[in-house]
Structures are given as C-alpha cells and as structure tokens.
Amino acid sequence: MPIDPTLPYDDSNIFAKILRGEIPANRVYEDEWAIAFHDINPQAEVHILVIPRGRYVSWDDFSANAPAEEIAGFVRAVGHVARAHGLVEPGYRLLANIGRHGGQEVPHLHVHLFGGQFLGPMIAR
Ligand code: 5GP
Asked: Cα of 83 to ligand 1 centre, how many Å?
C-alpha cells in the first residue's frame, strides 16, 4: 500500500528499524548522514537504497525541512555509493518515489540507485 507522505514520521517503519539495527540489512556504506544497503527485492543488477539517518518521511519532507548540511551530506553519500560501485562511466539511475502516484511503500526517505546494466525507458508504459 502506498503511504501518505503528509503524515508525521513513524518510528516503527522498516527502515527506522534497519537504522537502529533491529532488522538486518546488507549494508554497503554508512557515514554521519546516511546509510546504504542492498534492496531486498532487487529490480536491477545493482539496486541499492540510500537513506538519511534523519527522520524524514519522504523527499518532500526532506527537501522542505532538512538543514542544508544534512541535505549536502545525504546527496554526497548517494554520489559516493555510486562511485564506489563503479557506476559513473557506464551510468546509473536514481529514483525517489513519493506518495501514492510515486508508489512509495516505506515512509522513510530513500533513494533507489539502479545500475550494472542498461536500464531501459525512464517510465514503464
Ligand atoms: P518504495 O516503493 O517505497 O520506493 O521502495 C521500497 C523498497 O524497499 C522496495 O524496493 C523494497 O524491495 C525495499 N524493501 C522493503 N523492505 C525491505 C527490507 O526489509 N530490507 C531491504 N533491504 N529492502 C526492503
């Protein structure tokens, strides 16, 4: 079920549990601002999720409310993970789903990082 991105942050969401270490995840990167781990149901050869440590429901919440330092730290973390996986020259795709039309399922901001193969059209028709 897609989430409502206007609701307050819910500390019981699955990515909050991963951040607290209550649920295992295959982590590939972590720093002060973000952690990254493999998606449990990969949609491409490389499918990594990058999430901020901060409590943000969605990209909307993050872009409106996060301090500039936290936004910079998160964006740099996403770029770092892509470089560390050798994705820059062949290319890759970033995706953030927001709310109902975006099909967002987990109410903690996450950026999908896809790569390792040609990714086809931007949106399925
Ligand atoms: P959304 O549709 O919200 O943009 O994407 C949520 C993503 O989280 C999906 O790609 C889904 O496979 C992934 N996911 C959901 N639960 C877990 C989990 O417990 N662990 C990991 N690693 N990924 C998860």
From this structure: 22
Alpha-carbon distances, residue 30 vs 21, 49, 51 (angstroms)? 13, 12, 10
CA of 91 to the centre of ligand 1 (A): 22
- In a domain, residue 21? The reply is yes
pTM: 0.98
Known catalytic residues are: 110
CATH label of the domain that carries residue 97: 3.30.428.10
| Backbone conformation region of residue 72, classed left if phi is above 0, alpha if psi is from -120 to 50, else beta | alpha
Domain total in the chain: 1
Residue 8 lies in a domain: no
| Cα 76 from Cα 87, distance rounded (Å) | 15
- Its domain, for residue 85, covers 14-115
Tell me if 123 is assigned to some domain. no
Tens-place pLDDT, residues 32-91: 999 999 999 999 999 999 999 999 999 999 999 999 999 999 999 999 999 999 999 999
User: Which of 10, 26, 41 for mutating ligand 1's site (highest number of atoms within 8 Å of CB)?
Assistant: 41
Residue 97 Cβ contacting ligand 1 at under 6 Å: yes
